Amino acid sequence: xxxxxxxxxxxxxxxxxxxxxxxxxxxxxxxxxxxxxxxxxxxxxxxxxxxxxxxxxxxxxxxxxxxxxxxxxxxxxxxxxxxxxxxxxxxxxxxxxxxxxxxxxxxxxxxxxxxxxxxxxxxxxxxxxxxxxxxxxxxxxxxxxxxxxxxxxxxxxxxxxxxxxxxxxxxxxxxxxxxxxxxxxxxxxxxxxxxxxxxxxxxxxxxxxxxxxxxxxxxxxxxxxxxxxxxxxxxxxxxxxxxxxxxxxxxxxxxxxxxxxxxxxxxxxxxxxxxxxxxxxxxxxxxxxxxxxxxxxxxxxxxxxxxxxxxxxxxxxxxxxxxxxxxxxxxxxxxxxxxxxxxxxxxxxxxxxxxxxxxxxxxxxxxxxxxxxxxxxxxxxxxxxxx
Length: 387
Description:
There is one protein chain. This protein is mainly alpha-helical. It has a domain of 143 residues. 71% of the residues lie in helices and 0% in strands. The protein contains 20 helices and no strands. The longest helix is centred in the first third of the chain and has 20 residues. The chain is elongated and about 110 Å long. The two termini are 62 Å apart.
């Protein structure tokens, strides 16, 4: 990470040396985006935050402030005949800030810091208008108003095209609602994002998450599949598709999607865990063991992966090796009756009946209606007969 600024610096310098005219044209374009009418998006689509706000939409924007500031600067030169030291320092700061931002990408948030320093010049323009009105000088008032209007029209001219992404705005609103656990509102935003732009794969992925969490897996699968065209390499989407096909018992499709997820992100513990679950269902126990081992290496605290690795070993007749992983699962801070059940089975296989009984009983303590634990206890010899 420390080398990244140096890498970008070298790439920028190479671009200027190899294609100076193109670099200059892009720099002038960025200059206009800084002073022009567009509200350039970055991590937030500020354009629509303002447009859809009942308050912000009526407040003066950067273009009005900039037009007034340039007018105030003009009045300083023409009416007050020059700049004093404080005003000169103010202009030097404004120009220095603008030039310091120019080498980077342009966005609305880079304009915010300069606004307080433009406001004194904007206020000066308004003072000149107020003075002309108070002195009943219609000629001066009309002339100064015309200059302000002319500058406002100039700065409002869209010399270069830019369109804020409304679909992204709805996507970010959906994230905000989801973060507050308001899933109905979040889902509405994600669906609106897809209405505006059906190729918004992230919106499809997030809508699928919500439907899956609600148990509506058919809808979840449809949203995931709709996102596939624009996000073919997204490992989270592949993992979720794998899970939906796993629930439908379409195990070849589930394996295919899980393997695609892992091809793009090999250190993806959840995908390894889910792949292991498929192999357990298809009775491919060695593959299941390998998948769960990867999951446990990447997420050592995951009790489910530890328990399932033990289950894969047990079904593969590696009974002694399975014990370690069942015991590790029981280290979870929450009660884990399934690990007790599996330990009971493993210990029963090893003829360690007293220990097996303890774990079957522990399973029933937390999971009273577990028929497998009840049957396990019935199979065991009585305590008096147990070795």
